[in-house]
Amino acid sequence: MDTTRWNRVARRPLDEVLAELRTAHTLAFDEPSPGLVVMSVNRPDRGNSQTVEMFGEIAWATATLRHAQLRALIVTGAGGKAFCTGFDIGEIDVLTRMSVSEFTDLVETAAAGSTGLRALPYPVIAAVSGPAAGGGLSLALAADVRIADATASFSAGFVRVGLSIGELGTSWNLVRLIGPGRAAELAFTGRTVRAAEAARIGLADRLAETGTALHAAIELADTIAANPDDSMRSTKNALVRNLENNSFQSALELDNRGQALIMQVPETRQALTKG
């Protein structure tokens, strides 16, 4: 099989994808280095809070990015003062007027964004400055790695406004990141976790100096991008799929199949030969 030809068909040129994505109203897209894209929640005047429109745009963006010629994606908040503060309280009345079917459609669209982000075939890094609260926490948790600076904070404050932590995968992701006891304590209290504690309990994977979370994320993404593309994609698939796999034997089978397939990639064989 001519894999080069297949890649040309399956993976859209990044400049073409970015031109399409830059028509978004609530998101911004930049390419700080070749093959690396920064997707910013772009409502800095409203704490980068979420709207009904944003939910649709994140779902659309992740579906569009899935087949782009991309090595890594960084998710952050525009302006550097907030990652994402959750749903905009100015639009709450829109939610309260919805019927059950309308609200179900909305949350399914919102969930498609979180699912789409997590399912991207290459590494996703969240660069967190300022608060990641409510739906913003859900967005950060959908990334593979979270880099937080000293201003970062995390809050699953759903219960404080009468909602459940069962939103956009937060309950699933949080338990697996920090354990059931810590997840329950944060879910039941809705308290805010500051950067140092977030790093200590595993909610943040790296700490950066104030104002440098995005810079640190770009440095990490560039390091990742230096590795073979197929290797990164196979590794991402193994990590995500086996996180949901309760059988060690099934996990081994997935690992073995992935290694057997990637051994057929010419670049892999060349890399192994070079040592």
Order of helices and strands: HHEEHEHHEEHEEHHEHEHHHH
- Give the N-terminus to C-terminus distance in angstroms: 26 Å
Count all strands and give the number.
9
Strand content: 5-15%
Q: What is the radius of gyration computed over CA atoms, rounded to a whole number of angstroms?
A: 19 Å
Helix content: 40-55%
Biggest sheet: strands, sense, closure?
A: 6 strands, mixed
Structural class: alpha/beta
Specify the overall morphology: globular
The side-by-side strand order for the widest beta sheet comes to: 1-2-3-4-6-9
The residue-averaged pLDDT reads: 87
Which blocks of ≥5 consecutive residues have pLDDT under 50? Answer: 1-9
Q: How large is the count of helical segments?
A: 13
Report on the structure:
Strand 1 and strand 2 form a beta hairpin. The chain contains 13 helices and 9 strands. The strands form 2 sheets. The protein has a 6-stranded mixed sheet, with helices on both faces. A 3-stranded mixed sheet has the order 5-7-8. The two termini are 26 Å apart. It has 275 residues and is an alpha/beta fold.
Write the layout of secondary structure elements.
Blueprint: H1 3-10, H2 14-21, E1 27-33, E2 36-41, H3 52-65, E3 72-77, H4 92-96, H5 100-118, E4 124-128, E5 131-133, H6 135-141, E6 145-149, E7 153-155, H7 170-178, H8 180-189, E8 192-194, H9 195-201, E9 206-208, H10 213-225, H11 229-243, H12 248-262, H13 266-274
Helix pairs in contact: 3-5, 7-8, 11-12
